[in-house]
Amino acid sequence: LQPVPWWKDAVVYQIYPRSFQDSNGDGVGDLQGIISRLDYLKRLGVDVLWLSPMYASPNDDNGYDISDYRAIMTEFGTMDDFDELLREAHARGLRIMLDLVVNHTSDEHAWFVESRSDRASEKRDYYIWKQGQDGQPPTRWQSYFSGGVWELDEASGEYYLHLFSRKQPDLNWENPTVRREVYDMMRFWLDKGVDGWRMDTINMLSKNPAYPEGLPLPGTTLTDGQPHFLNGPRIHEFLQEMHREVLAHYDIVTVGETPGVTPDQGALYSGPERSELNMVFHFEHVFLGDEQAERGKWSNPPLALPDVKRVLARWQTGLYGRGWNSLYWDNHDQPRAVSRFGNDRQYRLESAKLLCTVLLFMQGTPYIYQGQELGMTNVSFESIEHYKDIETLNASKVLRDEHGWDDARILASVHARGRDNARTPMQWDDSPHAGFTNATPWIRVNPNYPDINAQAAEGDPNSVWYHYRDTIRLRKTLSVVRDGTFTLLDAEHPSLFCYVRDDGHDKLLVVALFSEEAQSYGIPDEFVGGEVLSNNYPSGEATPELHLQPHQALVIRAA
Ligand code: TEU
Ligand code: CA
User: Fold this and answer.
1) Does the keyword Magnesium apply (predicted)?
2) What is the second-level CATH architecture of the domain 110-161?
3) What ipTM, to 2 d.p.?
4) Which of 241, 335, 376, 515 has the largest CB neighbor count within 10 A?
5) pLDDT value for 1
């Protein structure tokens, strides 16, 4: 029987360094700021800290455009600061997971500068250069940041590919020298003692070599190229090579960010016998309905709980015994969980705790995003001028200029689904700028920080923070959460999310009411009279008929 790998019992906390804690008064978060908050993270009880990119970058996409993989971003500090952070984290029993961004680099990376300088450059093939035809780009694929994916380089008359911004040219993974450069860079960080990788857009590395045209997208001249660069023909070959060359030689954890995967594909990436990754992030729950919507996520189609339940249940059962799930509601690209899936007005506390319970009792490794443990909410800046995210700024121009949306409609979309919702500064206390900085922050703080901040939370036993701390502790005492089966109950119920975990010895029933209307619910006989292990309300017994309060979530152990 294989020993259980440590990451199956771990809880990961994602830090977006730019917005976590400023230590030197320039309004931008930094590594020394993270070091000053390690004790807070230790108290919360998390095990692994995933740092969003802290490498040298011009910050066109806030660090996801890397200009030197072996240097620290100037704003974040120095390599000595990083070494100190790693040492201080390890001294507290905390592991560090870095962000691997190797589908693309910054256009200011020395490799690209050389590649672009001359068609005969030996680094020309580090990137993807193609001739257009009749003055048109090779394909009309749409970029994730609006516009096309091919940028014309006047000097050579050739186009280079960028699935994201034009300052993020895609690396050419068909080139074995590129792959070797990446593996060397990974060893540089792993030899320092780094404990794992979150792998950015990792299922985009292998493109269909024919670069076929994509399917027309409504309301634009662009096409959907995703079928030709997601989960491409050589992706598993590349990941198995990365595993053989690098990953297999370290006791680390890996999670692939893989938009557009099904559970079956998830099993191919995360199956223990696959020698690829330990788990992946899918996006089916956070992008529900967006693909059918006219303007994608900006149309913000309404969420129906049965659809969310169906997706999560499919991943729980689809990977059971075949792979491993990551569990998340929130990250630096998504709106705040309590605003998207909960009720961030009169039931903010109850629904933030409910989301914690529903997430942490499923099978998989949970990922908590900075501020989620406080029930931080979306922000509603009154003007697009206060937004910083390239995805939002590019999209708002297209929505206005090509689709005629007025400012109010654009702002409503950005308020609901913009990535800056997750990037307003971490709210530490009720001092100016929420204790994030004593300067002007790079992005405005959410004005609700006087009520929602870590200092208030740690001073209030009824806070969301204590529910996260206690639920993390509780989950670790229950091996049924790691090993048990998952069975969804009442799949079609419009407002109740109920599931059972069972490992043959222990059985748990999770009941969560995603509604502000009180509701009754009859529980299976085996749970009647059982111990209530977790409850986000002061009272609630395991009676045959539960009388649930708005956004109440309970965990009952079979008697
Ligand atoms: O995101 C990959 C991705 O698919 C993005 O399009 C994201 O899902 C979308 O913007 C959500 O609206 C990764 C990083 O997480 C993101 O921050 C980067 O901007 C992107 O890759 C490019 O590196
Ligand atoms: Ca700083």
Assistant:
1) no
2) Alpha-Beta Complex (3.90)
3) 0.97
4) 376
5) 66
